[in-house]
Amino acid sequence: MAVRWALVGAFGLVVGVGLGACSAEPTPTPNPVVQPGKPGEPNKTLSAEEAAAGVPVVPPNDADFDYAEMMIMHHQQAVEMTALAATRAVNTSVKGLASRIADTQRPEIDMMNTWLERNGRAKVDPAHAGHHMHMTMPGIATPEQLADLAAATGPAFDALFLQLMIKHHEGAVEMAHVVQKDGSDIKVQEMADHVIAEQTDEIKRMHTMLAA
Questions:
Q1: Model pTM?
Q2: Cα(114)–Cα(48) distance, rounded to whole angstroms?
Q3: What is the predicted pLDDT for the residue at 166?
Q4: CATH: 3.40.50.280, 1.20.1250.20, 1.20.1260.10, 3.40.50.2300. Which one for 62-123+131-211?
Q5: Any bridge partners for residue 35, and if so which?
């Protein structure tokens, strides 16, 4: 009888251990870490071991630096255009959009300048950037177009603002696509992704406003 109860007790212990193991929370699978490939090469998904071991990060290249420096100036022109909307726009939707663009792009200018400084480059003062650099960027409004915008009021301002800002946003998206292809720095890639998502959505909204 003693042997029988000993066997039952042992069986119960085994079952208990098995149930305990089954009820344990599964080990979470870590999110994949994607390392951008070099220009013309695909991105690489790192294993958990590679990520934990600190696989060397791809350093920024000329395309990354060019993007950050040029996009700061590109954003600055958008901020200057949106400042006109407060007193010249009549459509509340246009005023709201202009405010949103300014509130988004001012912090992005600071973010890109911080990135430049961390990577050994001087910050860009967008207010004193070279005019020739402005005019080489896609979507940039000419001095004549800016003068026309500053002189317009009411519905005429709203229409011209939307037309110029659509072109301006399309230029920014084009620049972001170029650095996605040619750049190597993961932070710059993230900033470019955000520009494409944010400004593509705003382009659609502006086309809807123009058509209304």
A1: 0.73
A2: 29
A3: 98
A4: 1.20.1260.10
A5: 44
